[in-house]
Amino acid sequence: MNETTPNSFRTQPDDRGHFGEFGGRYVAETLMPLILNLEREYRAAQADPAFAAEFDDLLEHYVGRPSPLYFAERLTEALGGAQVWFKRDELNHTGAHKINNCIGQILLAKRMGKTRIIAETGAGQHGVATATVCARFGLPCIVYMGAEDVKRQSPNVFRMKLLGAEVVPVTSGRGTLKDAMNDALRDWVANVHDTFYIIGTAAGPHPYPEMVRNFQSVIGTEARAQMLERTERLPDLLVACIGGGSNALGLFHPFLDDTDVKMLGVEAAGHGLETGEHNASLLGGSPGILHGNKTYLLQDENGQIDEGYSISAGLDYPGIGPEHAWLKESGRVEYTAVTDEQALEGFQLLCRTEGIIPALEPSHAVHAVAERAKQMSEDQIILMNLCGRGDKDIFTVAEKLGVEM
Amino acid sequence: MTRLESAFSKPHAAFVAFITAGDGDTAANLDALVAGGANVIELGMPFTDPMADGPAIQSANLRSLAKGTTTQTVLMIANEFRARHPDVPLVLMGYANPMIRRGAQWFAEHAAGAGVDGVICVDIPPEEDDTLGPALRAAGIAPIRLSTPTTDAARLPTVIEGSEGFLYYVSVAGITGKQQAAIDSIEANVSRIKQSTDLPVAVGFGVRTPEQAAEIAKVADGVVVGSAFVDLVGEFGTDAPAKLQELTSAMASAIAKARS
Question: Which residues carry this modification: N6-(pyridoxal phosphate)lysine (chain A) (predicted)?
Fold first, then answer.
């Protein structure tokens, strides 16, 4: 821990959207008035009990919350160490945690009178969640998706189209998730009057990192209460995978001031940190400015952004939410990285011991859980956010395992 | 009088010409812009993720980076330009990350050493001025800010406070190189801005022809042209200088006559 350990880790960001030296509002002037207006509208919504009531109601009856807290008995036995518990956010409608945030943002868009929704997506999970809430609220939805990802993730592209969304293949730059985000920002800047941009992770200009974190905090708030009810104690260690970092913040944030609860964020090490082909912005990157915030980035010595790599498209982004950058520097959360190969082991381990097919993203976290559990005692508890289900990934996994489908 | 002040003190509007550093034969391209009559050079620093730019300048950035352009290359281009053209103001335009990578102070000092007069950073709004503004001012470089159609009367003073050199009015809410705004809307916005500041106001985004340039030159202190030049570099490569000089001359002549 640094000498300047704050009294609370739950009071960030400051009123300018800064998490320590990270975060902020690094956007073109055209967007600044919108960002400031969004913040005012979000503060008003936060103060309005009717907004919270509608959010809670949709989460309960449309998303299916609270998600279960599950003791993974056979996995625990197989590992022979700490008890492993899962927060089952893969059971949400649309199969991942992404929907929690989309419900919150679409309610805000509706409240602000916006009539057109845009989003960016990598693997397509956030795109599907956004298309879902747009269908639910009858708003047109345009999803920017890298042209390469459109080819690789055709089932999700079809899902989005079934839900009425227009999927725009992005060929600018190198046609990846970061380029999709660039094109979404270009769309927004040209359609400022009627358009709401639903960002999928706890990154981007203030207030997005705070807002997304707050919408996702339902995960940790539920888990904390469920854990106390079931075990009459708090877990010893929280574990979650990190791309942009929204599922991890959703789990971690309500526990940040529980000083006995340790936390581990798991980045994607791809082919290995030493190969340079990874998405570990915190462990293998350095601070810089991209997409509206100051945070850790994969970049070269001239500040040009590097392409990340991971088997998991959902972790395939060269940045990370600014609150994670701050939590790393403050020492409150520990970060590690797990390779493609290790994630595949985690994936198969969970399939066979628990009958749960996880997404490749949380499979990274499963591997880290397996490593840590073995080093801990049987009376200790690890709680992992199982943030997505793996149906979308079976083709990728089959290919890696050399199975023809 | 600074080089920028001189450029904005002519009887006609200042002609601000943009190209991307490291795209084509940049030194020859810059010389062609000056020979054609550009009054201010705006040199784009290439970035992998130019979020405020349209297809023309995006492509120029990628062409430049593919040739291995670095921050040092950009500074060297500036330095050599300054040696050849001691009196023509030179402004760097780009995105925050390459500018702060080695520290704001490093960038400001090296840019000043290369003879740079001003810096336009697209993604550092006044709210984040601390990131680069103080270092630029300390090095004697003008931080040039953008005002846009969404910058309303309440916000305008925030943008003007701390701006130096000139104010760049982005005439459309959108990205570079696309449509141009209606001239009456440009005129109204420029006159609104000029009521709040003594800084010269230059207008850009979507200006592609001498006729459009002349229209703006009637109502603003400067006209910025970028994508039209960048397209010529993309199309003609090392043969671009002659084409650039031709278009620059036509625009300069239209701008010079606009107020008569």
Answer: 98
